[in-house]
Design goal:
two-stranded antiparallel sheet, alpha+beta, 2 domains, 7 helices
């Protein structure tokens, strides 16, 4: 950097202008870094097959928001940190009650949701359908909770609008609704930290480029 001045007053003005330019350069660089990381994280989540809904939980913000600063910083976060973290680091999921995890395997049950868009539970499924699930023990394989195929009125809807599966219109058909497992191990499907580090390494060069 080269600064030419003829008096102390010119020097002070020139230094002030450079300081303001530096504040703007740092802030712009952090804006770009925050958006780049958010874009990459959302792309990773979608590519991993975790859905657009989870990808859109990734947000970013630059501080301070309305002014430029030499100390500007970018914050990138998820509104569902537990879910994103589980897929980034891998996680062992067990039942909160210490028994079994009930995973829906029936097409309609997979679409059902409980409070706050949570996955359906056997108890809630029974409340919605008005039927009882039967426990089926399978030696050496995960046990099941099944619907015994009791007759259901054609095109019966629950209050959320889920249509009964056509298979249920047949009598005496046993339909597996939930599979019971003691725990589930999530594999690592995301590498968010590495992508953030790659963007961070490019920040100094971005500051210099904006400052010029």
């Amino acid at each position: 950097m080269r600064i030419t001045f003829r008096s102390e007053e010119n020097l002070q003005a020139a230094l002030y202008d450079e300081f303001v330019a530096g504040e703007k350069a740092v802030s712009i660089a952090m804006d770009h870094a925050g958006r780049a990381i958010k874009r990459d994280w959302r792309g990773q989540i979608r590519a991993a097959g975790l859905g657009r809904r989870l990808a859109n939980t990734i947000r970013n913000r630059r501080y301070p928001e309305k002014t430029h600063s030499m100390d500007a910083a970018a914050l990138i976060w998820s509104k569902a940190p537990e879910i994103v973290g589980a897929h980034e680091h891998g996680a062992l999921i067990r039942s909160k009650e210490g028994f079994w995890l009930a995973i829906p395997i029936d097409r309609v049950a997979k679409r059902m949701r409980g409070p706050r868009h949570a996955r359906i539970t056997p108890h809630l499924w029974e409340e919605r359908t008005g039927k009882r699930l039967r426990f089926v023990y399978r030696r050496g394989r995960p046990s099941l909770l099944v619907d015994d195929g009791t007759q259901r009125q054609r095109r019966t809807l629950d209050h959320l609008g889920f249509v009964a599966s056509p298979r249920r219109f047949r009598k005496n058909v046993v339909i597996p609704i939930f599979i019971l497992v003691p725990q589930v191990k999530l594999s690592r499907r995301l590498d968010l930290a590495q992508s953030a580090e790659q963007v961070a390494r490019a920040v100094p060069a971005a500051i210099v480029s904006s400052w010029r």
